[in-house]
Amino acid sequence: MAAARRSALCWCLLVVALWFGREAAEGGDVAGIYELKRGPFSAKLTNFGATLLSVMVPDRNGKVDDIVLGFETIDEYKNDTTYFGALIGRVGNRIAGAQFTLKGVRYSLKPNDGNNSLHGGPKGFSEVVWKVRSYRPDSHVSFTYHSQDGEEGFPGDLDVCVTYMLIETNKLAIKMEAKALNKATPVNLISHAYWNLAGHDSGDILGHNLQVFGSKITPLNRELIPTGEIVGVEGTAYDFRRPCLVGSRINELPDGYNINYVLENTSGGQHLTKAAVVQESKSGRRMELWTDQPGVQLYTSNGMGGVKGKGGAVYNNHAGLCLETQGFPDAVNQPNFPSVIVNPGETYRHVMVHRFTAK
Fold first, then answer.
1. Of 172, 156, 152, which Cα lies nearest the Cα of 164?
2. How many helices (H) does the chain have, and how many strands (E)?
3. What ranges in the chain are assigned the alpha helix state H?
4. Looking at residue 317, what is its pLDDT?
């Protein structure tokens, strides 16, 4: 009898050990997929790159479609150059010359966009496996990552956490936090989702109606680096203060939209402000975007060039629309831009909320 009890106990301990071993592996060494679901509204994510894989939303007739561009397998994300759905860091967007000076020290980064740094460098946060802090299928999933001092050339140790949350049955919120541990460092985390409200495999987004709540932009030079100016959009193809079709004036631009808008009424993270509204007429789907950041990058997937996506889809030019709330690009080298520097003991916070409706 005692031997039987010992055998049963050993078996229980083995099961527990295997369970916690699996959890530990999912938490940092193995990329897994995590689904959040409330009724017909759902999202899938992976801890590889803290990436948003899909968002399923009903149209006006209740038909549910995936409205996020992406790949079929996690391995495809490991070789991705489009940053589909990725969490970008330590510093999203471009840094001129892949260098900056902070507190009298010159830091050289690893260039991956000509001479410039793009989206954190060759191995930014979108290229690493994050740990899973917590997961509730009807609520949220939180991923964490420790970025070491000197990683991709950036100074200081940084603890990062991103939480994806389903709120009610029609809101997807993303909360990003990063704490500088021992050195001042720039931080600009970005969610790089590509949206097509008609469905990820439905063609281009030129017929989407777009409104951006920003009357100014930060213009770029030929290398897509901000000039340091802040100029008005009135009378230009960048004017989306009133809703209009994405494709209505895109031919006035050499390569499509890829620009940072200065958002109105932002208050340094004290509350959320509306950044943009997108609406697609055939499905009736509408997405409102709210944030606490000073800028939003509009990108119309220019030069997509036949990328093979999930479900056999082929994504061509303008297949998706990115609206990336953010600090301004190259802010580390532009003293008139809002600072993206986080000092030791301080915590960077960035919230964005997507609200979906259909009518």
1. 172
2. 2, 28
3. 2-28, 74-78
4. 97
Across-strand partners of 36?
43
- Indicate the length of the chain as a whole number: 359
Structure-token pair, residue 98: 């892949």
Beta strands per DSSP E along 183-305: 185-186, 190-192, 209-212, 216-217, 231-232, 244-245, 258-262, 273-279, 285-291, 295-299
Amino acid (one-letter) located at 29: D
Phi (first) and psi of residue 240, to 5 degrees: -115, 30
At residue 26, the 3 state secondary structure works out as: helix
Q: Write the single-letter amino acid at 191.
A: S
Cα 93 from Cα 51, distance rounded (Å):
17
pLDDT (tens digit per residue) in 175-215: 999 999 999 999 999 999 999 999 999 999 999 999 999 99
DSSP 273-340: EEEEEEE-TTT-EEEEEEESSSEEEEE--TT--SEE-GGG-EE-TT--BEEEEESPTTGGG-TTSPP-
Task: Point out which residues pair with 35 in neighbouring strands.
Answer: 44
Q: What is the dihedral of CA 152, 153, 159, 165, to 10 degrees?
A: -50
Which residues are the active-site residues?
Answer: 192, 324
Query: For residue 212, which of 173, 238, 174 has the smallest C-alpha distance?
Result: 238
Per-residue pLDDT of 288-298, as tens digits, reads 999 999 999 99
Helix (H, G, I), strand (E, B) or coil at 357: strand
Q: Which tokens in the block code for residue 91?
A: 């510093």
The type of residue at 200 is: H
Encoding tokens for residue 267?
């208050």
Name the β-bridge partners of 123. Answer: none
